[in-house]
Amino acid sequence: MGPSSFAAPRMLDAEQTQALDAQIGAIEQRLAALAQALLDNDIRAIENCANELQRALAQALDGFQAASRHGHVPPPLRQRLVRASGQVAAQRDTLARATAALDRAIESLIPRAASGYTAAGACARPASGGLTVA
């Protein structure tokens, strides 16, 4: 096989490029909305934005996989997707740190060794044998 037997990757047409651009735009919008919801400490908005972001990411993944099978994805679109992926990772890390801090705060308020009722509602009993005389 000579060098002429390998075809250069075909560029996507304008319609395919616009579709990918719109999918990345949807991710960017949902990332911004999630960031705002986090700043506002709006639990419902955080949940809604996270779900919408997840859907947008899944749609973009499908779109980029299909596009890569049918042509070459333009570098600016790939770079935007990489930036969006980095923003998702940064927000995930921020949420993980916030969750860890919250867990530590809760732990300091409600020590694990405390006796009494647990989250499941059962009474924690000391591990002692024998009978109790009333």
What can you tell me about this protein's structure?
- With 134 residues, the protein is an all-alpha fold.
- 67% of the residues lie in helices and 3% in strands.
- It has 3 helices and 2 strands; from the N terminus they run H-H-H-E-E.
- Helix 1 packs antiparallel against helix 2 and helix 1 runs parallel beside helix 3.
- The protein starts with 13 loop residues before the first helix and ends in a 10-residue tail after the last strand.
Structural class comes to mainly alpha
Rg calc: 26 Å
Overall mean pLDDT score? 81
Helical residues, percent: 55-70%
| Estimated share of beta-strand residues | under 5%
Give the SSE layout:
Blueprint: H1 14-40, H2 43-70, H3 75-109, E1 116-117, E2 123-124
Helix pairs in contact: 1-2, 1-3
Gist of the model:
The chain is mainly α and 134 residues long. The protein has helices at 14-40, 43-70, 75-109, and strands spanning 116-117, 123-124. It has a two-stranded antiparallel sheet.
Structure characteristics:
about 130 residues, mainly alpha, two-stranded antiparallel ribbon, 3 helices, 2 strands
